[in-house]
Write a structure and sequence with these properties.
Chain A: This is YEATS domain-containing protein. Chain A: InterPro entries: YEAST_sf, YEATS, YEATS_dom. Chain A: It is found in: Nucleus. The complex is a heterodimer of chains A (245) and B (449). With 245 residues, chain A is an alpha+beta fold. Chain A contains three helices and eight strands, in the order αββββββββαα. In chain A, the strands form two sheets. Chain A has a four-stranded antiparallel β-sheet with strand order 5-2-1-8, with no helix packed on it. In chain A, strand 6 and strand 7 form a beta hairpin. By secondary structure, chain B is mainly alpha-helical. In chain B, helix 13 crosses helix 15, helix 15 packs antiparallel against helix 16 and helix 17 packs across helix 18. Classes of the chains: A alpha+beta (245), B mainly alpha (449). At the A-B interface, strand 7, strand 8 and helix 3 of A face helix 15, strand 5, helix 16 and helix 18 of B.
Amino acid sequence: MSKPEDTEKKILNKKLKDVEISIPIVYGNISFWLGKKANEYQSHKWTVYVRGATNEDLGVVIKRAVFQLHSSFNNPTRVVESPPFELSEAGWGEFEIAITLYFHSDVCDKPLNLYHHLKLYPEDESGPMSTKKPVVVESYDEIVFPEPSEGFFARVQSHPAVTLPRLPAGFTLPPPVPVEDASKRKRGDTKDHPLSQWFMNFSEADELLQLAAARQQVQAHIAKLRRQISLIDGQHQQLKSPSDQ
Amino acid sequence: MDAKDILGLPKTPLPITQEKKSQPKKDSQRKPDGISREVYALTGGLAPLMPSIDTSQLKRRPPSDEKITWQWLPFTNSARKDNLQLYHWVRVVNGVPPTGDYSFAKYNKSVDIVRYTDEEYEKYLTDPTWTKEETDQLFDLCERFDLRFIIIADRFSSSRTVEELKDRYYSVSRAILLARAPSSGDVSGHPLVKEPYNVSQEIDRKRALSMVLSQTKQQERKDAEVLAEAKRITESRMAARGVEESTLHVASNAGPEMAETATNVDGTVSPSSNAQLASVAVAPSTSVMAENASTLASLRMLRVYLRTYALEQMVQAASSTAGLRTIKRVEQILQDLGVNLKPRVPTKAVCAEHLELRKEILTLLNLQKQLQYKEAEGSSFRDGSYTEMPGTPKRSHRDQDGTFVPDSMSFGGERAGRRDQKRKGPGRLSEAPSSPAHKRPRKLKASDL
């Protein structure tokens, strides 16, 4: 089963159609009021980040993340070369942060942009500010690769950060690439992250239920309208025939 | 008139044409001479631009010096090879029957098939896959059936395809033509020489044709969407010119010709360039399905995108035919149903459900509109009975589960309110609820049916 290197490369570069790889991510910020230590220019300490939705290591897919901060920051372009992809700073202002994700070469040669509005102050302004309880704003999304290369697929097929679809019938999995010894690399997952206690939970179950219920209601209403319409059509028929001159 | 001059028609004065300019109205009452009024009316009524019927000719009888009789006479047909004699009616003038061949004989045309001699066959026309007997038979059939290859294929003794037969016939004819020609230049203009029969091309062409013919509706839709997508791509390409671009090669399933595509700035999926993509996709799609699937195709081109972006695009595509007001109503209904306008956990499944829900709400609104129209129609049937009219709109408000339908669901709150005020008729007002939220079923009256 040994193949010459060139053919193997070609095979690995082949795109898989109808196979979509998606990476569920959560991105956002956590910010702590500095309380007594706050000064005019730095009232909060905050961290902006992109993490796996289940806190798995995104380094399998993302090569580096670039956080573009407000121009008032020194070196507003912050590059993070390894997971966990996060950036901590101190400041007083809220602004939009552009996060650009660059992927490994076998994943995608195009970067992807996310936009997050940094939130420092709580919605409810009336409550007392606490240095212990942070303001947390997170958004769930999924990075979708509609036509992944076989090489990419082979590399990540058993990684927990990656969602693979049901494979089409007759599909033969390429041989899995042996994973690097995990202990050698610095851990990139966020499972034991110091801020993990504040991470929000995103479960699709609730939303699915709600959508299903809503659809049911709408469908019932549609059926009712259709009945009413056909009723009226029937009546119009009756009216038409006698009223013809 | 000038027209009559040009055509050289006799200048017999027709009452219609003379009076056309001065008294167009009177003509319709005047009976045209020469033919009955109804017949003349068949020409489209009065005053055609050019009198197409020369009415004076219509009642002309044959000149009286000719004596016409009709006789049952035998005839022969030069197109026949036997001497079959049939009989038919013949118009005899002054005792002299008409001369000449049977009038339909001239239509007996046939194709000039090149026939080869045995010598020529040995010299030029031998082929490993064809015996001489077969080739001879082919040419006989070709002559007999005037190159109708479908019939020839049917009658051919061994089972050869139409393309094989055509190939053999045309290559033999071509070879003979070339062989018999004094020089190749003489026959280079002959169609057989200029455009030889290409078997493989023909087979492919026919296969493609039959594929197109047997395409299911779904495939038609797919093709339409791919073409719409191609149009979009070319348009977005033109619009993105002048902005920093990188090129993409598009791999399409159907394989139509697609030129290189330009992506947006830095090839990123930023909201501003998303808007650009969306606004530039002006290509009108043939159907909602095509629109939907062309969005999918354009997403595939991006190579990486966010689920939320994809949902946005799909929602836009689905609502492309709806006006702003309708979209606002959809969003209102979503809110009333307790659904997030943008899903909080946009997984693939959630996004799909969300999209379907939006589409269903659009359907719902369309049906409501339909119902409105039908009821408006209904009221026009009942002429002048104002007691009925106010009743009919109420029908649609008859919602048994009052709890489900908040104001916006049923007919849009404002409309119901207006109807209430317009209501006339005895006794109904007391039943009419002032607020649309509490609709009660109205009793059907006999007059309604």
